[in-house]
Amino acid sequence: MATSAEPVLASSLYDLEHPNQKVPQQKRETTKRQAKTSSKAIDKALNGGLDFGEVNYTTTEDRGDGSDFIQNLLACHLQISEKATATVIDCTLAFDVRKLHKIVQTSLPVPEDALKILDRLKIMKIFDYTGLTEALAEVREHLEQKPAPKATISDSEDEEDLVVSGAKSDAISPRELLIVTNLTHILAPMIKTSYVQGQATLASLLRLLGHLAKTQDMCVMVLGDAHTKKVAEGETLSMFQSCLMRSALGDGVGHLVDTHLYLHKLPRKNPESVAEEAPRKAHILEVVQDRYGDRSSQWAAFEYDSDGRMKDIS
């Protein structure tokens, strides 16, 4: 005889049916630590920075601009703490280590320390989807095997002090930054061959990244290309009418991650550029979709100096 199913709370079913439900803004602010981007304007647009425990997807108009952006993100993260670590899963086999070294070197008071900082960066080069999943499994295994801190306790007073200091240590402990670049290079051929199967693979992968981000309290940044075909003006996710880009992996990407960003360029409108044949352009990082709703439509403009370092446009 079949047994009846255990009853469940309606609120639990509601949460499961609405994973994108907007939550109060204070939840993100009080429970999340954030990774800085080396740009005050971008950090302000992101309400402090990129959150740990979340997946961020950046659609880039130009792959080179995306590479410059993540190199500055890495340089900033690795310099925050001597224990901060990062992993880059390079799907294009084009990650420029020398350029990253130059950015780090010019940011340090002692340039010779740049190589020591790069010792905390792991680069994993992969060739296909199987290699990508194996790399993610290796990252998870490495993080799960990190030993817990040990200490010798002499008496009850020391034990009490250790509890307090341990709590403080956990609160400020460095976390891992994971960057996947460029996802389009791996999944676009699969989607072109079979759209349904390719989209299912994309959804499965981004859910895997989301689970990894939450369980390991990582900050995950995924880069992908923009589609070669532009969208109509009324269909763009951007608040800028001239930005008609869309993700090459489909319009559903933003619903599978916590934050979806556009990285593109716009002409700079200033008196100096009027007489120029080709006006200078500003880099724009724009939040087009946000799971919690408190960052949507926020954006920041920036540029790079001669050393490749990101700087705000005044």
TrEMBL record:
SUPFAM superfamilies: P-loop containing nucleoside triphosphate hydrolases. One of its GO terms (molecular function) is single-stranded DNA binding. It is found in: Nucleus. Coiled coil: none annotated. Keywords: Nucleus. Residues 15-32 have a biased composition (Basic and acidic residues). Its main location: nucleus. One of its GO terms (cellular component) is microtubule organizing center. It comes from the Eukaryota. Residues 1-38 are annotated as: Disordered. InterPro entries: HRR_RAD51_Paralog (IPR051988), P-loop_NTPase (IPR027417). This is DNA recombination and repair protein Rad51-like C-terminal domain-containing protein. It comes from Pseudocercospora eumusae.
